[in-house]
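ASSEMBLY PREDICTION REQUEST
Request ID: AP-0331
Submitted by: J.K., bench scientist
Number of chains: two
Total residues: 627
Priority: normal
Notes: Please return the full assembly, not individual chains.
Input sequences:
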Amino acid sequence: MLAVLVMALELPKIYKKTFEQRERREQLVFSEILNDFVTLKYEYDTVQLRQVQVGYDRVGNVYRAEALMDIFPMRNCRQLMYENRFPDTLRGQHVTLQMIQEAARFPLFLGTGPGRKTLLWMFESHTDLVKMELPRDMFRLTENGIEFIETTTNRVKGVNREKSDRFTSAMTKEGVLFPVKNIYGMPSTSKSKDDGYFLIDSKDKFYHLKMVDGEPVCHNIPLPAGMKVDGMNCLVDTMNYGYVYDQDLNIYLLRIKDYSFFQLPIYDYKEYGSLLTMSEDLFFYTYQLYGIDRAKIYVMDKEHNLLASETLVYPLYENSKEGQRENYLFPFKARFTRSAPKELKVEAYDVHRFIYLNIALVVCLLLVKLYYRRSFWNVFNYLDLAVVLVCGIYGFLAVLIFPNRK
Amino acid sequence: MTLHLFYKEWLKTKWFVLASLVLGIGTILYAFIGLNSNIINAEGGSQYVFEWFTRGGRPHYGIFQNIPFIIALLIGVSQYLPEVLQKRIKLTLHLPLNEIVMLYTMVLYGFLVILGLVVIFMVVFFLIDLYFFPGEMHLMAIKAFIPWILGGFATYFFVAMIAMEPGWKFRFLYAIVVYYLLDIFLLGGDMSDLYLLLVVILVIASLGMIYTANRFKIGEN
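STATUS: Completed
Returned structure:
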C-alpha cells in the first residue's frame, strides 16, 4: 500500500512535467486612455520571427507595438519619454514622469488569514523618529491578559509584571474580554509610523491597542450592526488603518479619522481563494482576486469608486489534452496541500476512463501468474489482482516490486 | 535469551552508537554556538532572532533535521550488514526461538538504542534552549522534531527490511520506494494533520521485515 501511495504521489508529477505544454498567459490590463480593459496576448510575428505582445480591446480593435505603448502611457512612461511621445496631460491632469513613478506602488499581498498571537513587539506610537526603534520587550496574549517578556542580549529575563498588569487593566477597562481571538498589526521595523494592534476579543468585539509615551491606549471600535471581523491587513497610510474583512468576506477600509468603515465595491471575494492583491498608480487602485482557474480584476479611482471589473479565465492543465489523457492512465492521484497545516489529498478520476487500463493490467498479471504456475488456493494471489483492479498502474507496479511467489 | 541477543547486538553496534551520540550532541552544540553568535552580533539581540524564527526563517534547530535519519542508518547498517553479507543471520535463525521473535528482538534493540539517543538529544537540546527562549519557541521546535524523529524510526525499520531482502534487484526497487516515503517526513511546514499518516507508515515499515525475512529464509530470488 505504501508503494501505491508513493506512486500516486510521484507518477502524476512526472507525467505532468513530461507532457505539460504551458502557454504564455493572457493578461488583462486597464488602459487609462481607453478607460477600459485591454487583453494582452502573445502572438507569433512572422516578420520578427518571435512572439510579440498584441492588445485587443473589447470593441475589437487590435493594438501592436507603438499603438500598444500609446494606450498604456503610464506603464511605458520611460520609453515614451525617451521617444519624446509622452503626453503632458492624462485624464485631464497634468502629469510628469516623477509623479507617475512616485505614485506607483508594488502590489500588496492582502487577504484573510490567521494572525500571530505570540511574541510581538509593542512599538512606541508617539515618536518623532522616522525609523522604528526596537522595544526591549516582546508580548504574548494569554488566557486572561497580555504579558510582556523582557529580553537581554542573549536570553529571556522573564515577565515584566508591572507593565503587563498596566496594559491588561487598561484593556479590561475598555471592555476587552480575554482570551483574545486574534490580533493584527505590523510587527516590523520597516515602517515609517506605528498604529499599534487591532484585536478581536472573545465576544467578537473589535479593539485598537497601542502604546503612547509608554502608556497603554485602548479603544473599542464600534462595528456596524451585524458585522463580525474575520481578518485584517494593516497598512502604513495616513488615511486608513487597513483593510478589514467581515464574516461574509466583504472588504472595508478602516478610516483613521473616526474609526468608520468604508465598504469596497467588491462583493464576491468569498467565491475566490484567500489571496487578494492591491496595486496602486497615479489614477487607480487595482484589486485582483485569485481563483483556481480565474482571476477577477477590479479597477477603482482614488475615491474607491468602481470604474470597471472583468474576469480572466486561464486554461487549466486538468482541462488540456494532456491533462485529460492522465485520467485514462491513472485511477487517482495524491498530493500534499500547501496550506498550513498540510494535508494529504487524494483525487479520484472518472471510473469509466481508467477502468479499461486497469482490466488490461489485471489480465496481464493473471497471465504472468499462470505462466509461473502460482497456486489458485493462495488468497494473496487474489489480493494482488484486486489491488491492480482498484489501483491500476500503481497497483501493478507495486505487486511487481513486492512479489508474491506462491 | 533476549538479553544475550541484546548483548550480541551491542558488540556489533557499540562504536556506531557512540559515533551517533557524538554526532547528535555535536550538532546540537554547534546549532547553539551559531545561535549565540547571531544573538550577540545582531543589532537588537535576541529580539531579532525571535522575529526571524517566528517569521519562518531558518531556525537554529534546522541543522538537526537529518540527524535522526543518519543515526538510524548508522545503527541499522551496522546491525544488519555484517549479518547479511556474511550470511550469519542464518545461524541466528536456527537458534531455539521463534524466528519472528528472534528478528524482532534485534529490531527492538535497534529501536531502543535510537529511542535512547533521541531522548538524550532532546534533553540536551531543551535544557540549552530553555536558557535562550520562551515557551512558544519550544513548541515550535517540538512540532518540527516530531516528523524528523518518526522519520528516523521509519528509516531504521526500512533498513532492516531492505537488509533482509535476498535479491539485489528488489533491494534497489525497495530503496527507491523508501526514498520517496522518507521524503514525506521531510516535507516541512506545519505537519500536525499528517501525524496519523506518518504513524501508519511507521507501523507498516515495522512489519515490512516479516515479508523480506520470510523471503530470505526460503531463499527466494
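REVIEWER COMMENTS: Chain B touches chain A at residues 36, 39-40, 44-48, 50-51, 54, 131-134, 136, 170, 173-174, 177, 180-181, 184, 187, 189-194, 197, 201, 204-205, 211, 215, 220 (CB under 8 Å).
SIGN-OFF: pending second reviewer
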